[in-house]
Amino acid sequence: MMKMKQIRETSSEELKAQVEEAGKQILEMRIKKTASDIASNPLKRRVLRRQVARMLTVLRERELQENK
What we know:
- The chain is mostly helical.
- The chain has one domain (14-67).
- The chain is built from 3 helices and no strands.
- It has helices at 4-9, 12-36, 42-67.
- The protein is elongated.
């Protein structure tokens, strides 16, 4: 799990790639849950979703900063 300090130090291109990869992981977890009805690790899904939100927040902050 990346802390906000680490996220802010990461380049925008790398953040976009990480957001895309995490999105794929979340989708795969969702598909596996519905396909097998076995309770997947909900904590991991929650952590991934929050991590994506943090990365998107930093990307949006950078976008707004460039527009000033």
